[in-house]
Amino acid sequence: MTDINTAKANIKTTGFLDIAINVNLDLFAEIEKIKNKKNAIVLAHYYQEPDIQDVADFIGDSLGLAQQAEKTSADIIVFAGVHFMAETAKILNPHKKVLLPDLKAGCSLSDSAPPALFKLFRDKYPNHLVISYVNCSAGMKALSDIICTSSNAEKIIDSLPKEQEIIFAPDKNLGAWLNKRTGRNMVLWNGACMVHEIFSVEKITKLKIRHPAAKVIAHPECEEAVLRLADYVGSTTGLLKYSVDSTAKEFIVVTETGILHQMQKSSPAKTFIPAPPNNSCACNDCPHMKLNTLEKLYLCMEYETPEITMNEELIILAKKPIERMLAISKQYGL
Ligand code: 13P
Ligand code: SF4
């Protein structure tokens, strides 16, 4: 069996603490104990597995999670989400310990925008302002003027003068949707999310025929043809709120399946149908988000590793556009 020191040394390869846990341990109770003992807070994204959502202190979309990270008085922030989210929490709290249960929990969308390539692209548009979706690396954030999330992107774009030219990165689908909503012609970086690009128009249409009263609700990272089928398009928080407020009884949910847990909890009498991908895989589950497990969460809290560490200079550069986003969001009451 691997001992703790070997497991710590192996994190560079494994991404997490690969040690056995006593199967009789009540992980929910243990996590609560550690939270109190260490003044730690668990922030979880809606795409995390249900057990992690149930043990979290705050569950939210990317904007909500960044806002919680900004205002927390906890000494340790445990981020149950993907790397760019934990990195954002670290940028906002450079002196706090930020833990991620599995360092390999990345993001295909973030990976689709390597900073060095993006810099070459940006340099071709010297008069353009760069708005980057928060799903990007700290290196990309450092090359951006303002960060946005799917909750506040429209407001952030509308807050700029109409004549201001803009590059939007890295998500071309969200960018195209925002161009339509705002009447802009932003230059789009050609990035996408592997989960949101997989939904099938044909299968959603067939589902809709079988469930004619169901509302189709979709995340704006989906392709335009899918978004055209939607009754409502919004961030994960927006989708959850819509499902609670709507009088409809059935919903076809076109985003990662993790969100269904909170939808079902908030509206037990309603039916939520996950939109199917265009093949028979479980590709509507984000393989990055789902790398985190309750066991890895417990271990990272107990041993305070893996930890997010960042170069100070990068923190300073990446912080500015995030703070700009948070300030504009506050201004609009978001
Ligand atoms: P939001 O939760 O901000 O809507 O983002 C979805 C997402 O893809 C996170 O990875
Ligand atoms: Fe990234 Fe897509 Fe997974 Fe969100 S769902 S973390 S955008 S790969």
Provide an overview of this structure:
By secondary structure, this protein is an alpha/beta fold. It folds into three domains: 10-106 and 289-310, NadA-like (Rossmann fold, 3-Layer(aba) Sandwich), CATH 3.40.50.10800; 109-188, Rossmann fold; 201-274, Rossmann fold, CATH 3.40.50. It is 43% helix and 14% strand. It has 17 helices and twelve strands. A four-stranded parallel β-sheet has the order 2-1-3-4, sandwiched between helices. Strands 6-5-7-8 form a four-stranded parallel β-sheet. It has a four-stranded parallel β-sheet with strand order 10-9-11-12, sandwiched between helices. Helix 11 (172-182) links the parallel strand 7 and strand 8. Helix 5 (62-71) packs parallel to helix 6 (83-92) and helix 14 runs parallel beside helix 15 (259-266). Bound molecules: 1,3-dihydroxyacetonephosphate (13P) and iron/sulfur cluster. The site of 1,3-dihydroxyacetonephosphate has 10 residues, from loops.
Which short descriptors sum up this protein?
334 residues; alpha/beta; Rossmann fold; four-stranded parallel sheet; 17 helices; 12 strands; 43% helix; globular; binds 1,3-dihydroxyacetonephosphate; binds iron/sulfur cluster
Quick synopsis:
With 334 residues, the chain is α/β, with parallel strands linked by helices.
The rough form would be described as globular
In CATH's first tier, which class of the largest domain applies?
Alpha Beta
Measure the end-to-end span: 49 Å
Q: Flag low-confidence runs.
A: none
The overall pLDDT average reads 96
State the share of residues found in helices, binned by percent: 40-55%
The CATH H-level superfamily of the largest domain is: NadA-like
Roughly how many Å is the radius of gyration?
20 Å
Classification by helices and strands? alpha/beta
Number of strands: 12
| Number of H/I helices | 17
Q: What is the second-level CATH architecture of the largest domain?
A: 3-Layer(aba) Sandwich
How many structurally independent domains? 3
Strand order, biggest sheet?
2-1-3-4
> What's the SSE pattern?
HHHEHEHEHEHHEHEHEHEHEHEHEHEHH
Ligands: 1,3-dihydroxyacetonephosphate, iron/sulfur cluster
What's the main sheet like? 4 strands, parallel
CATH topology description of the largest domain = Rossmann fold
